[in-house]
Each structure stands twice: as C-alpha cells, then as structure tokens.
Records
---
Amino acid sequence: MKVKKAIFPVGGLGTRFLPATKALPKEMLPIVDKPLIQYAVEEAVAAGIEEFIFVTGRNKTAIEDHFDHSTELETTLVARGKLEALNLVQGMIHSPGSVSYVRQQEAAGLGHAIWCARHQIANEPVAILLADDLILGAPALREMVDAYQGGNMVAVMNVPADETGSYGIITPQGEAGQLVKIADIVEKPAPEVAPSTLAVVGRYIIEPGVFEKLAEGNKGAGGEIQLTDSLAARIPDVPFMGLRFSGERFDCGSKLGFLKANIAFARSRPELGTELDKWLTDTVLNRG
Ligand code: G1P
C-alpha cells in the first residue's frame, strides 16, 4: 500500500495576491527565501514520494523552470566558486522522468484538476498536496503515509466556527490517537449547517475509486467539480479517515496567513530568528 506518487494542483489564478500574481504563479511566492511549491514538494519527499505530478495552467512555466536545471546559473556559480549556492540549486533537481506536468485547460475546480492527472495514476493510492496550506514542524504527509491503511485519508484541524464556509468539513465518528473516523464530508458549509468545525487542510491520500467518481463530472459548491464530493461518494465503499497532524498550518492563500507564515518560518531559522525577534520586540511591539 505504498504511496509513491503525489499530485500538486497548481493551476489556480491567485487573484487574492494581485498584482504580485499577474505574471508570477502564486505557488512561486516565497516564504522567506523558498517558494510555497517547494515546501510542498519537500514535504512529499519527506513522506517517501518518488513521482511528482503538477497540474498546471497558463502562466505557470516558472514552476517548471524552478524544478529544472538552469545551466547558465549553475555555470556562473561554479565559475565564481559559490559552491553552497550551487549545491542548493542542484539539490532540488529530481531524478529524470520523475516530474511530470499536466495542463488543466479550464478552472473547473479542485476535483477537475485532480481528474486531469488520471492518466498518470495506475491502480494505486496517490497523495495530493495543496501548496497554499503550509505546515511548519512535523511534515503532515509523512504522518498520514505512516498511518495509511487503504481507503481515503485527509489531514484535519479545528477551525473557528465562523470559518466553516472556507473548507471541506467532516462529520467525525470516533477518534483514536491522531486518527478520526469520518462519517461524512461536505464542501464549504455555512456555520449554521456545518456538521462540526473539523476542517480538511490541503493534504489527501486517495484511492483509485475517487477518480471514477470524479469522472462523472458532477458540479458541487460554487459550480465547481469538488474533490470533497467524490470523497463523500466513496464513503459507503472504502474507509475514510482524518488525521490530526501535529505541525502548525498557515493559510498562505490569504494575505494575513502568508505574512504570519513568513514571520513564523523566519523565526524558526537560526540565522534570522534572533535578530527578527529582537526587532519585533524592541521596535514593532514597543510602538504601542
Ligand atoms: C480546498 C478544498 C477544501 C479544503 C481546502 C483546504 O478549498 O476544496 O475542501 O478544506 O482546500 O485548504 P479551496 O481552499 O481551494 O477553496
């Protein structure tokens, strides 16, 4: 039951970050000095993923270039003896053929994006990572892969009651340790009708049956083909578990979440944390 492949849906327009995202994919926005998508890929690597499938769209070629050799850059770094930087850029190149790109031709929803990758997936489980959801600390996908025993699995966390309309929300049915058995799931319910405040964050392990449901092309919340609906449709047939991951999640699809992530990740870096903390305490917080 090894999970060897991961899908990264990166076709979104990133309208919440305009004008920054007019020509730059939102997944390339940096947290400190690394683009969001690279954090997601590194989390996948830490979980043992060997094949990386990006579902892209127009204006996303910067992502392809980012994970490829830059001969001119590498030659220049060699010539200037900048070996640390050279190791950094060469270390993020994956083995030939392990990275593929599928183009989603229309923004028809997360479920549609995943379905676009169907020809890359055999009869096997596959992970999905949404780069907007950035996790500091223990890699969530690793925790999920370690606990996975077939069926479908999502990462879950409690959200404030007035925010259920931004997430897939589960109906929990018993817990054991980090695992939550899921009786139902609904996409973006209003707080008045939400079954709980346990929300899905962007980490999934799905089984092949989900692709069959996605193929039906049914539209759900917001008129889009929702991954959540296909997961719900599989509940009668396969186990469905939530995993309360241990890391701290940042919603980098929002400006505030993105700013918080930059501060938290910078504070966790030895070469930046001490000075940043000092500046925050002495200067920012003292301004009153
Ligand atoms: C997507 C999913 C939603 C999930 C969320 C996590 O929504 O559809 O179920 O809770 O990601 O970030 P989006 O944020 O793309 O609207």
Note: The first helix runs from residue 36 to 46.
---
Amino acid sequence: MIAKIKYLVFVLPFVVLFLACKSETKEPKETPAMTADSLLSVRFENLLKHPLDSIGFPRSYSLAKAEVNKVPSRDWTSGFFPGNLWHVYQLTGNPDFKNRAAQWTSFIEKEKFNDGTHDMGFKVYCSFGQGTKVEQTETYEKIIVESAKTLSTRFNKNVGSLRSWDFNKDIWEFPVIIDNMMNLELLFEATRISGDSTFHDIAVSHANTTLKNHFRKNNSSYHVVVYDTINGAVKDKVTHQGFDASSAWARGQAWGIYGYTMSYRYTNDIAYLNQAKASLAFYLDHPNMREDGIPFWDFNDPAIPMAVRDVSAATIVASACYELYGYDKNPEYKTYADKVLKTLMSKKYLLEPEVEAPFILKHSTGNWPKKDEIDEPIVYGDYYFLEALLRQKNL
Ligand code: GLY
C-alpha cells in the first residue's frame, strides 16, 4: 500500500502536466483581436500613465531602443504633448485628461519670455491656446498675449517677416522657414484677445512676404528663404530638412497648406485661400503621393518607393483639409482627410498596445538629412491626428 501511494505521489504531477500541455495544444488560448477603437483607447491611457515631468516633455519614441526621447520646454515640440491631452479630453470627456493637460501646460509658462525662437506658437498656442478652448481662463489669455509680445521682437520691418532661426548666422543673414506660418495663429489670437492690432499686422506682413517668396511656380514651397536685413531682398532659397533645395519636403508642404488656411480664417484674404488650395492640389495630385494618403517624407527622394513615409505631414494636411472644406465645399478635401484618418486607424499605423509610451501613431519622420527621428512615433504626428479627429467629429 505504502509503495502504491509513493508511486502515485511521484507519477501524479507528471500526469497533470501532460494533460495540461495536451489541452494547451488542442485548444490554444485565443486573445480576442483588438479593434482599432480599443487600440486607440489603450494609446490614450498611455498618455495619462506617462509621469509628470516639468523638464521632460515626450517628443518621440525610439522603437529600436524602446526609449522615450524627452525634451525641455524650450524645445519647439514641448506644447504638443499638453495639446494632445487637451484634444483627448475634448474627444472623450474624461476629466483626468483635462487635469493632466492643465498640469503639463503650466510647465510651459516660462517660455513666454524666450525671445530666442520663432516657435512660440507651437509651444504656447498648442498648449495654452488649446486650453482656452476648454476653459475660459484669463490667465491663459494673458500668457498668450505676453508670448505674442516676445515673438513680435523677432519681426524685421525691412524684410516684413519674423526671423526663424538664430543658428547658421554666418551663412544665413535672416532665415525664414515655411514652418513659421504656423506661429501666426498665436499672433492673430493675441489681437483677438487684447484688441492690440500690432500682432495681427505683423502676422499679415509675414504671411504676405512668405506668399511672395516661398512658393514655386508649381505651388510647392521652398523650406528656407534667406533675406537681407537692410534692403529686404531675397539672398537665397535653400533647405534644411528636405532632400535638397529644389525638392518638396512633405511636412513643409503641410505647414504651408495649414498656415494659409488658418491665416484665411483670421483675414478673409482670398489670396491666402487660393495659395492653400493651390499648394494642396500640388500635394494631392503629386505622382508620388501614395494610394493610402500617407506621403513619403519628401516627394523628390530618389529612394522612392523605398523611402520612408511621414505620417505627421498627412495628419497636418488632413486637419487643414477639414478646415478648408468649411470655406470651399470641394469634396476632394473631405475625402482626403477621411482617407487619412481611416488609414491611420489601423494596426499598421497605431502603436502596439503593449508599448508603454505616450504616443499614438507610428511612421513619422522628423529630420531625414540629420538621420534623426526616422520612421518613428512623433508627438506632432499625434497632435494633428487628434485635431483632425476633433474637426471630423465637429463637421
Ligand atoms: N521645424 C518644424 C518641423 O520639423 O517641421
């Protein structure tokens, strides 16, 4: 009897293990496939989970290193993460996003005195500006006006533009980049809030100068135009982030389309609307545009079709298209924007649920010439995606 019990004690665990393995092979455990909507919810939760850090704003995510690239508030991208939280609050109504957005936004206030950059609009308007759409806060409005005052110090009357960068001073006397159109929203808003027309006038002058000098005959845009500060003449037309001086850098096209659509909102100047539409036609009709609506990072990269894409360019244009559709009911505008959102709401573009990083979309390209942030999740790709979702919802 004792021998029998000993035998059972020894053998039983093996029998149980064998049966367990058998049932495992016969009926593999199936996790239900996640829908794009539930994937998006997981990505939203990851924005909340990311710990508060007043000196480390999430900018991009290296898939290779599994590492979040964080930047201080002086970086041009700092406003996008708080902006994403404001957007998600508006999309979901979950107050946790609003509270977290307000906390991250407050870390940017000191930038209102930083006169060493033209990126004030990106930093302050994407954070405090989005906050004013959710809460009527006088404090935020004061910060917007103060920031506009600081940004205005970069305006040169002879050129009629705001100076973009301060680096490369030995070769670029006064560089203006197409991206700078995006900072005008802060100036237009500062006039609306304060009644002081100075900001509006500077924005209009900048938009007119850019309109005159940044666009080619085919309505694509140069990235950088360099001016003479004394007589305002154009000295050079070059690129910093595109393939070369004559190429059409996809995000640069996007900034132009969005910038002139937004400038039309504040001015009713038909020349701005026409430029936005003409540049959009160049972008949509380009033979190198992809069927799914996500462009290569530069329309003229000779590596096409092997070149990387830039999701951020697509989301900026999609968001602009919804606004443009409000001014001109060309069905192409809404069709493109809807297509981009549909493409991106898929496993190919949504970051996997198990990645614990505060980002939503893959496949943006930051600075190709510098081999920096290539084909990665980048915070501004998410920002304009969320803005486009909101605009689609509010159409
Ligand atoms: N300078 C802004 C951008 O990289 O698009």
Note: DSSP finds 13 helices and seven strands in the chain.
